[in-house]
Amino acid sequence: MQFDEMGNPSGKTLMLLPGTACDYQTNFATVLDRLGEKYHLICVNYDGFDGSGEIFPDMITVTEKIEKYIKDNHGGRIDGAIGSSLGSTFVGQLIQRENIHIDHGIFGSPDLDQSGKLSAWLQSKLVVPLLTSFTGSEKKKAKTREKLKSFFEMSDEAADRFMGCFAKFSPESIKNEYTTDLLTWLRDDIHVENTKVHFIYANKMGEKYLKRYRKYFRDPDIREFDMQHEQWLFGGEKYTAPVLKAIDEFMELAGNEGSMEGVQT
């Protein structure tokens, strides 16, 4: 595991937890410097994605390592944690388990999929080969690049950065990460005193995700954005700036304030 601390040493602590098959350097590349101007960042790379040669074990083992780091280095408490996609599972587990305390848990447009063992195995057989296919021919790379650019409004640079990230990690680590994420469940109606839960809702994902957010967490602060899944991290400033503004607003709230929910259904 890799924990790099950087940014504003006098700012509030904000942990950054990357998504599937990513390191924080790639996942948060477009916002790292700006977040660091205001916050003391704790940037995490999981086993299997930290350059150590280790294989990603499972979500709970990694959660335990994150908890230990927070206990050993921050007295068991941080101001905030933001999870990108799969990284949101770690945010949810850190809140649910109550072994450490987070004032603000920020969920970056996650799907929060959960399934049984057979379904997780079948899904991994379909998805993991796609995530590990970016070392193929130049023709295949070019086709994938154009799909990413079209769907997420990515630049060539951003598309190449993400394709390169997916291609450099062990397929076994990616398989373990993807599969155990599906097997790592959140209970319903999670509520921890003095912890506020915030969701970045990408409305192009579909309204079914709103139901999940409200199912797993009591009275979440949900902010709606007209974008695809995590588009604020690679789709250009028109997506990035509003989400960064919302993160600042999240971090300024008292931990146990009432909901400032931005969507109604």
Please sum up the structure shown.
This protein has 265 residues and is an alpha/beta fold. The protein has helices at 24-27, 32-38, 59-74, 87-97, 117-131, 138-152, 156-168, 171-183, 208-216, 237-252; strands at residues 2-7, 13-17, 40-45, 77-84, 101-108, 196-202, 221-225. It has ten helices and seven strands.
Describe this structure in words.
- The protein is an alpha/beta fold.
- It is 45% helix and 17% strand.
- It is built from ten helices and seven strands.
- It has helices at residues 24-27, 32-38, 59-74, 87-97, 117-131, 138-152, 156-168, 171-183, 208-216, 237-252, and strands at residues 2-7, 13-17, 40-45, 77-84, 101-108, 196-202, 221-225.
- Strands 1-3-2-4-5-6-7 form a seven-stranded mixed sheet, sandwiched between helices.
- Helix 6 (138-152) crosses helix 7.
- The longest helix has 16 residues, at 59-74.
- It is globular, with a radius of gyration of 17 Å.
- The relative contact order is 0.15.
- Mean pLDDT is 90; it is low at 255-265.
Mean pLDDT: 90
Radius of gyration: 17 Å
Strand content: 15-25%
Multimeric organization: single chain
Give the SSE string.
EEHHEHEHEHHHHEHEH
Q: Total number of helical segments?
A: 10
Number of strands: 7
Keywords:
265 residues; 10 helices; 7 strands; disordered C terminus
